[in-house]
Design goal:
This protein is α/β, with parallel strands linked by helices. The chain is built from ten helices and eight strands. An eight-stranded mixed sheet has the order 1-2-4-3-5-6-7-8, sandwiched between helices. Strand 1 and strand 2 form a beta hairpin. Helix 7 packs across helix 8. The C terminus is likely disordered.
Length: 280
């Protein structure tokens, strides 16, 4: 029996007898990221980066100069996973600042969640020049959307493989881990208590999104279904939905169509508004 099957079996059995205890164990697992090693293709870009530490201890990498683009990776991710996009942005004359999320990389903390990700982006933005764009992958995309509702200002926003409804993802994780119904309910409540925000509020359908945006998602994403991208796009009036037939959850980050669409969006918001002609 695999370790995952053993965990599911344990959760299914003990979760009926002690649902809160099992839910607490899964809550800690859900919010504690692993420190995964870099891939060889990430190392050259890392060597070119400037490491900076922000006022509240957050760590970040910086490349290039020009209007600032802020990047936020996903759960258990890294700034250098955006390698191809970073190179394109720097080549197009942008400064790129990519955060290590809380409890990731060199940033402090042992646990993290989407609310902490969002607050980290707000903290970073307070120390940076006005943002030309914010780009987030997976949970980084969900946190970027949430951050705009908490006060983050940006001229444009790009989400990649991002969930738009956190409650859906929490319930999906709990079912995947074999938690019975009562344990699943406890799990959601414990996550909400730790994050300090009801999961139902972290739903793009309730957001007011008034900046131009790009929603990128691969149809074959095994972790976040494409329907999440459709929900984001539907709730976001000035957004374009870019569907990639292939790319999974991670490979989409280097897709040339993503890079081209992102650069086009940034060019669009950089154009000065054309004044309406005066009428007599």
């Amino acid at each position: 029996m695999s370790s995952l099957n053993w965990v599911r079996g344990f959760n299914a059995t003990v979760g009926r007898l002690a649902p809160r205890a099992v839910a607490g164990r899964m809550r800690r697992a859900f919010m504690t990221p692993r420190d995964l090693p870099l891939r060889d293709w990430e190392l050259p870009l890392l060597a070119q980066a400037e490491r900076v530490t922000l006022r509240f201890g957050l760590s970040a990498l910086r490349w290039g100069s020009g209007p600032v683009v802020l990047l936020m990776h996903g759960w258990e991710g890294r700034p250098t996973q955006f390698a191809e996009l970073i190179k394109a942005l720097v080549g197009a004359g942008y400064a790129v600042v990519a955060l290590d999320a809380p409890a990731h990389g060199r940033s402090p903390g042992r646990e993290a969640n989407v609310v902490l990700f969002a607050r980290a982006m707000l903290e970073a933005a307070s120390e940076l020049p006005p943002l030309r764009a914010v780009i987030g992958h997976s949970m980084g995309g969900a946190s970027a959307l949430l951050a705009t509702q908490l006060g983050l200002r940006t001229e444009a926003l790009v989400t990649i493989a991002a969930p738009g409804r956190i409650l859906t993802m929490l319930r999906g994780f709990a079912r995947y881990m074999g938690l019975p119904a009562r344990a699943r309910a406890h799990f959601v409540r414990l996550v909400e208590e730790k994050a300090g925000m009801p999961a139902r509020q972290i739903d793009v359908a309730q957001y007011h999104l008034d900046m131009p945006g790009l929603v990128v998602h691969a149809a074959d994403d095994p972790l976040v279904p494409f329907t999440e991208a459709e929900a984001i796009h539907q709730a976001w009036p000035d957004s374009r939905l870019l569907r990639l037939e292939q790319g999974g959850h991670q490979r989409a980050l280097g897709d040339p169509r993503l890079i081209e669409a992102t650069l086009r969006l940034l060019e669009r918001v950089a154009q000065p508004a054309v004044a309406a002609p005066l009428t007599a």
